[in-house]
Amino acid sequence: VAGTMLGDLAAQLLSYSQMSSAAATSSRHSSQDNRSKSSTAAKPRFVYDAQRCGRLCLFSAAFGTPIGHYWYAALEALVMPASPTAPAAVAAKVVLDQLLQTPFGMALFFGMMKVMEGRPRDVPLELRTKVGRSQAGTRHGLIFKVFSQLTCV
Questions:
Q1: What are the distances in angstroms from CA 124 to CA 16, 116, 128?
Q2: How many CB atoms lie within 10 A of CB 131?
Q3: SS3 for 113?
Q4: Residue 89 CA to chain centroid, in angstroms?
Q5: DSSP state letter for 117
Q6: Measured at the alpha carbon of residue 96, what is the angle toward residues 101 and 109, in degrees to the nearest 5?
Q7: Terminus-to-terminus CA distance in the chain, angstroms?
Q8: Whole-angstrom Cα distance, residue 142 to residue 94?
Q9: What are 77-135's pLDDT values in tens digits?
């Protein structure tokens, strides 16, 4: 749970930093277009979203960790159990993980986040936008992921 909390804090700070940078850039461009406006915009203050972190910790404890445990135990038991660290075994596990578990895990994560936010009606749109877009990147990056795993063995 501590790792989840630290990771979420880092993610929130990164999002805040990116949002602040985008707002500053937008403010500079609009002030250049309209000289009558002040070019100094007040930077919004960082506000930690403890509820978001709580939802993430709850999801991780209730779903993410147990599913991951049993998924990776199954991969170890079923994919070349006699030589689980052989390059072919590692490559097969990465491919299975990316093609089977990743879409399921992402759909479960994004769907449950919307449900826990109290917005279950937003689940279909969330799945179409986030999972579809992310999976396109996963498929394109699959060769790189397999290669990077093989070079770490």
A1: 27, 15, 6
A2: 21
A3: helix
A4: 26
A5: T
A6: 10
A7: 29
A8: 8
A9: 999 999 999 999 999 999 999 889 988 999 999 999 999 999 999 999 998 888 877 66
